[in-house]
Structure to design on (102 residues):
């Protein structure tokens, strides 16, 4: 089990889990399409660590980028990846709080 650190949290990959699945499980905002290294939509910047690929991905990957759908961490990773920003919901607060007559 490998330790993964992102901009917002640390977590451990579960047995048999891909890095993309771990990022999804922990609520991170990662785009994806094919889940097999063809499209490159899931690419993220790796700030520290090393990964390997069982098969070289077909998607173009710049130095310092990885495809979490198909890479295998070789050591603990630090990724430039964040949890989605939560927009304020109009219904989270009582709009009439304090405006009621008693």
């Amino acid at each position: 089990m490998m330790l993964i650190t992102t901009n917002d949290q640390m977590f451990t990959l579960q047995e048999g889990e891909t890095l993309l699945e771990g990022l999804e499980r922990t609520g991170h905002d990662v785009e994806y399409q094919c889940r097999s290294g063809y499209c490159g939509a899931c690419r993220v910047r790796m700030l520290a660590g090393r990964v390997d690929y069982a098969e070289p991905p077909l998607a173009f990957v710049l130095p310092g980028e990885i495809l979490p759908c198909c890479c295998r961490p070789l050591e603990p990773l630090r990724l430039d990846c964040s949890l989605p920003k939560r927009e304020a919901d109009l219904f989270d607060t009582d709009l009439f709080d304090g405006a009621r007559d008693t």
